Amino acid sequence: MEPFSSYYLRHRYLPPFTRSIACQATLSGYSIGSRKCCYIVSHRRGDPLEGRKERSFRKFVIFHFRVRGGGCSVTVRAWGRIVSVRCAHEEYAEGRGGGGFGRREGIAVLRVGRQAETLKQPRQQVVGKLRTSDMLAADEFLRSPPRKTVRFGGTLTDILLKYQKGETTDFDLLKHQLLDPDIKDDQIINWLHEFRSSVTYLTKEFEQLVSILLKVSWLRRGQDVVEEYLAFLSNLVSAQTIYLRPCLAMIVSHFVPPRITIRENDVDVSDSDDGENVSEGFNTCHRALQTIAKYVPLTPQFLMSVLVEKFPYVNKSERTLQCYVHNVLRISGYIPTLRHDILELVIERVLKVDVSAPRKDIEAAEEAESKETTEEGLFDMDEDGESPERNNVMAHPIAERLDILMIVLFSYVKDICHVNGKLDIGNIKDLYRDLVAIFDKLILPTHGSCHVQYIMFYLSSFKLGIAEAFVEHLWKKLRHPNTPAVIRQAAGNYVGSFLARAKFVPILTVKTCLDLVVSWLHTYIDNQDTGSKAFCDVALHGPFYAACQAVFYVVIFRHKQILDGNLKKGLAFLQSLNFERIVMCQLNPLKVCLPSIVNFFAALTRKYQIAFCDTIIERNRRQVLPVIRSSCGGDSVETCTNPLDSFFPFDPYILKRSKNVISPLYQFWEEACAEDLVEATGATNECKGEEEDDFLKGETPQNEGMIGLMPGSFDSTL
Questions:
Q1: Burial tier of 108 (Cβ tally within 10 Å: 0-12, 13-18, 19+)
Q2: Integer Cα distance of 95 and 128 in angstroms
Q3: DSSP state letter for 81
Q4: What is the pLDDT of residue 388?
Q5: Strands (DSSP E) along 53-129, which ranges?
Q6: What is the pTM (predicted TM-score) of this model?
Q7: CB-count exposure of residue 274 (10 Å: 0-12, 13-18, 19+)
Q8: Mean pLDDT of all residues in 469-487
Q9: Is a pLDDT exceeding 80 seen at residue 325?
Q10: E strands along 414-473, which residues?
Q11: Phi-psi region of 668 (alpha: psi -120 to 50; beta: other; left: phi over 0)
Q12: Contact 613, 590 (CB under 8 A)
């Protein structure tokens, strides 16, 4: 039934329902001067009957009633000679009228005059009336507790119309009531009822009023308030799309726990308020977004800019970042058109955190904390030891944030790729397309990132076809002549590091990739030997040297698996790669590649008589290395030991919590192989075990400047 905007009966008598209430109030003995009081009555569905005198003023007395049988709450207010009855129950309201939203409620306004003690039967039928049997006796009414639903001013429609005419008193009073931090649930519900019925009036002229209403604390109130507020939001954005972005911004602002101030040692410390209902509040926010997206098709276009704007700064607390990233990723589940943009946003911000915590800084912080813990342990012999949770905390504060965010990302990838516990090939392919595009745009050009790229590593572990597609994608970038040289070199680093470290990639795939890359190297040498550029120059042949280093790196890590099972067949494969020609060519790759890789590769090829690199290495040592200015600026100079500026993106993963996801998939440097090669080279460096993996550790030059762009189960995470 359509609600009423107004319905008037103008005569000198009160309706029977109002007379009954007035008589009960008269029995209570409240009066103003020599006049008895007339009353304004409003009621709402869902409350039992109760009431008493709430407060007394010079010109009016306020009572509160509740109707028992009809399930409607009643508020009585006395104002001189005017009585209004507002009915919000379809059983008691009939008639025609305009305005409002919804079909399950009715509003009837009845205005009459006269004092309560001179009441008579009405001379005409009243449209909006309640059964007198639903009212309590006078003594029950007086004993019942109050329900604070007091509000001042007229109906919302009247207030808005008065404001348009220049009368702002009631409008200011309305804003004051909405801004009251002690506003009760019933008051909010009553106002929301009226706002829902008046959304057509809430044009841009009332933007300030809507902004106040959007600031009302609703999420941590009763379920009735939450449901009414969600209904109001859907009505508002449907009728007035100009408020779509403010509504979205309000909802997204609740994606992080509220901040509370804790006083410790006379110092105010701000922290996240992780109450019991935090997850429930997040669920409500997502319900609101889904409802708005259902009614307004333009929601995705506006929502993405809001998500970017509201993303917390990287120096915010771990909990704040974790909750926001978790909720943003959750949106991609019910608005799939935003998944690529959401993943790009999240990976971009996590990448900033990653490059802000270089590997050497994290290791230094962990080492310092380890020493401090050891020293403290000498004096705390009676303690039972540290808790596992404390052992998982990173000493480096930025690394701690990164660790938590990587857990969220890994959980998201796992949940997307598995449906009901089973691997979903279609979901894997779709997610791979999104992630590989983001990888090309953000991760591949970023030099020095240590952990974010492991998203691709983890995704590739689910299906061999995804791993092969990823390697093929990198290989195409490496060999494509129109791709910038710096990107081609980075792709070479990724190819070598991925094939060497991914335990889930079978040796047959590794051999196929080696054969493919080595064939390209031989073709490159053939093309350069007859030209005028057949000399060692990183600027001219950077991608070639990156490919050579990738091949040497993979052979060092995987040679044992290549030779296992059938030594003769394995040696035949390595000899077929013709490493002798590569190391002896005029481009001289052994001079450009990292010395540690060159020394281990020379030892391995000498041991199995695949190639002999010692002569080339000795000749390169006799040559004077060029001296260049430091990349950090200033007048300092240094010898260039890493002319390729190469790094290995899948070096050991050092974040404590998320490391548990990667370790089962990771190929560590085997100590036995290292000992064999060290004996062959006569090297004096001590070999590291799995925990301190890499034979390159300490030998790969690190950039001292700021790291930036290169030159030129998901729900359980909360």
A1: buried
A2: 9
A3: T
A4: 56
A5: 53-56, 61-66, 72-78, 85-86
A6: 0.72
A7: middle
A8: 94
A9: yes
A10: 418-419, 422-423
A11: beta
A12: yes
Instruction: Give 178-226 pLDDT, tens digit per residue.
Output: 888 888 888 899 999 999 988 999 999 999 999 999 998 898 888 999 9
- Which bin fits 20, alpha (ψ -120 to 50), beta or left (φ > 0)? alpha
Contacting residues for 624 by C-beta, under 8 A, at least 6 apart: none
Alpha-carbon torsion angle 90, 91, 96, 101, nearest 10 = 0
Here the tokens at position 593 are: 């590649």
Q: Which two tokens stand for residue 374?
A: 């050891």
* pLDDT at 376 (0 to 100): 64
Structure tokens at 7: 């319905």
Half-sphere exposure of 192 toward its Cβ, with a 13 Å CA cutoff? 25
10-67 tens-digit pLDDT: 333 334 343 333 333 332 333 333 333 333 333 333 333 333 333 433 333 333 333 3
Residue partners of 199: CB distance under 8 A and separation at least 6:
101, 235, 236, 238, 239, 240
Amino acid occupying residue 202 = L
Q: How far apart (Å, rounded) are the C-alpha atoms in residues 599 and 678?
A: 9
Backbone phi and psi for residue 219, each to the nearest 5 degrees, phi listed first: -70, -30
Residues in the chain: 718
Q: Which helix (H) or strand (E) holds 609?
A: none
Q: Is 260 helix (H, G, I), strand (E, B) or coil?
A: strand
CB 515 within 8 A of CB 473: no
What tens digit of pLDDT does each residue of 400-451 get? 999 999 999 999 999 999 999 899 999 999 999 999 999 999 999 998 899 9
Cβ atoms of 562 and 507 within 8 Å: the answer is: yes
| Residue 79 three-state SS | strand
Cα distances (Å, whole numbers) of residue 555 to 387, 521, 579, 602? 41, 15, 11, 11
Q: 314 near 321, Cβ under 8 Å?
A: yes
3-state secondary structure of 399: helix
Token pair belonging to 23: 């008589």
- Give the C-alpha separation, 434 to 339, whole Å: 8
